[in-house]
Amino acid sequence: MGKILWVCKESFTSLTNFCIPYFNEYKNEAIFIHPTESLLRDTTFVNFKKNNNDIKIHTLDKIAHVYSDNISDKLSKESTNKLQGFEEKYCKKVDWGTLLMSSQIFTTPYHYRYFFKDLTDEEKNYWVLLLFEYMENLVKTSKPDFIFDFDNSEIGRSVLWLVADFFNIPYITIEHTRYNGYLIPNFNLGRKVDDFFIEKFLSIKKADSSFETEVISYRNKSEIANKDYKNNKTLKKNNNSLFKDLKRLGTYEISAIKKMKSKIRFLKSNFRFPFIAHFPSIFFFFLEMVLRERYLLSSLNPFFKNPVEGEKYIYFPLHLVPESSTLIKAPFYPNEESVIAFISKALPLGWKLYIKEHGAMIGERPLKFYKKISRLSNVEFIKLDAHSDPKSWILKSQGVITLTGTSAFESVMLGKPAIVLGTVPFEMINGITKCKSLLALPGIIKKEFVGVSKIDNFESCAKYLQIINEIGEIVEFTFLHNSCYNSLLFKTDLCDKARNQIVKMVEVLKKGVNLSS
């Protein structure tokens, strides 16, 4: 049947672990796309290796040691020439600077995780040089027929995708459609909507009546929040008990100490690899994060306000940063602070920008972030519990602006306009406007938001639902991800529900194989 190369990283390794047995007709190999997991003998790596001792597992350990031994302030002429050759050969779909945005370790100026050091161009480029050399050799020698993945963030993934694309090897990952848990296969790491998807959308003249009924049902719901969000912190609104937070902090700090010990044990003090979180910086980061979270979710928070009834506003929910929704899907807008400042200048008279913080980011951003933005007179941070569900936030707004967030999909499904700044799988639905330059934003707001209370996009929404039903599967992704991760960590069996979800995840990958043929 051929060979599959599975891409592993951290908790997503667990999904690979439980999906591999469903592809026994193939020869399977795996690659750990970030070296710290294997260098530090993380539990995910060790347990995956034990569970899959019959497959070949590739790691980046060797090139990490080469990097540590040879990194210097200036690249040699030979290395520079090699880089130029790789850029010319492989970077047809992604510019070099955009490629370097693929990793949180390369984008420290845009996020708040100060336990990673700022890197020079030479440090970044030398690692990417080693990655291209490694991935090119891997693809040529391993010769996979397919590459399977469950995530899209990290520079190693992007390099492997570019090399695979050059050699016409389908790189299949999953795309979250934002509707009812549907996952679909994607062949571009989520950097663009696949051509086959656009063609299918355009080929449908009129959606089946059942999907029109689904749109009506969605608009009549009292609550539209994805139920799977209950399995993570996306919709977090209130503080945990003090005991629970102390326990959580203890878990964070013990993990940080264990990684420090692993570094000393396996890598010694002379190992100059900057992609491992710095200790004790990571220790203090977690302490500050938990303390800030408790403060921001308390009545002492001076930044988050109640909405003003009847006030005209644009809804701008913040993202989890750093993550693929910004670094991969909206690489030119990794800093939401600058985007907010620009939107504030583009608002019509009397309008406000209402900002909702992401539940998982509470505590991670420094307080000065909220203080600085709160000085903008037409911008307000709104209390997280001001509305019980996204539907209320959206229907009372003039429209939604987001980088790549689910709120844009929710908005058009409710018949309200939305502006996105990055790539989203639903961007062809009427009512979604993709803003390719912030300079165009004032005009788009006037055209799409001012005087527009409702948009006629019923048929367009139904067509989108029809396509994702055809090529996708409903998967409770966060539940499945958490279940598989815990099972891999603690060597326990999956529950029946998780096993059923794995079967659906496998179907998404198999549909990707069929679409690629």
UniProtKB/TrEMBL annotation:
Q: What is this protein called?
A: Capsule polysaccharide biosynthesis protein
